[in-house]
Amino acid sequence: MARKGFQRVVWPFVLILLIIIVLSGCGGKSPPASQEASGEADSGEDQITGELNLFNWSEYMPDSVIEKFEEEYEVKVNYSTYSSNDEMLAKINAGASGYDIAVGTDYMVEIMRKEGLLEPINLDNITNLKNIDDQFLNKSFDPGNEYSVPYMWGGAFIAYNKDEVKSEVTGYKDLWKPEFKNSLVVLDDQRVMIGIANKMQGESMSSTDPNVIDSSKELLIDLLPNIKAFDSDTQKTMLLNGEAKAGIVWGAEAYLAHSENPAIETVLPEEGMYLGIDCFIVPKDAPNKRTAEAFIDFVLRPEISAEITEDFPYSNPNKAAHELISDEIMKHPAVNPPEEELEKGEFLKDLGEAVLDYDRAWSEIKQ
Hints:
This protein is an alpha/beta fold. It is 39% helix and 16% strand.
């Protein structure tokens, strides 16, 4: 009888204990112990879930980095790509994306912020933001970095094969020469290309003057006989296989092409180059927002950020990562342009309603 009485008393406590153990294992994965110790994630709504939907440019995030994040956080990353800021905006604007994190260029961050398409980022969860150089923080497109965190930055350069090109190349204007007929690869990006044509007229890359935009359209139509392909993904391929003698390319593409063929040189255009800061953003109503913040913080670790630049050598705003990146990359002008060249460069701005004029001009250029 005593034993049965003991069982009646103990079993309810055992049952309660089992329920507590089971419940404590639910609700998603918490951040690593180092983050828990700093008090980052205690509430249930701050749990890291088992999935992350990442939307990014192609050739912009190494598989190795994704795999390390998946392993450490026990998260499955679903990776989708786009070729332009406009494509990214269109898909997110459609409202059916389900993306948790994307990468947008400075002016696009401003547009999406104004249109209410972004979730504010809890910077308390981005402990590695301290690694970002101050010059890339608190910019006018997102004061206080409420909606964005810098990822990479860079510009649009000229790359050309000196063994194939006989004339001197010092600026964008030289690409209109007859020597380049049907032999250029240029960026498939209306803001960059029309901006470059604006710059050639001595105007702002973000000019809203209809006359300037129309003149830029005509300039780019005049360039069409020289353009072999519009490509914002892998411009280096055509430079390396000989289909293109020269091009307007991203900095990493210029560096990679030169690495494989030293005859391909980089020119910092005398007119002043396009410059852009690409930032992590969290789309409105992202289903896994806390996981997105964990991914941002993970990428901002110096060793992870350096690994990305070693694979895709864009300019890196993570100053703590610089000493981990090879000198060959850090000293290349397409990766780290001289300060005097940066001062001539220009970042794009939100065009407001004038974006419709750019849309029309671009459609007429590519029709």
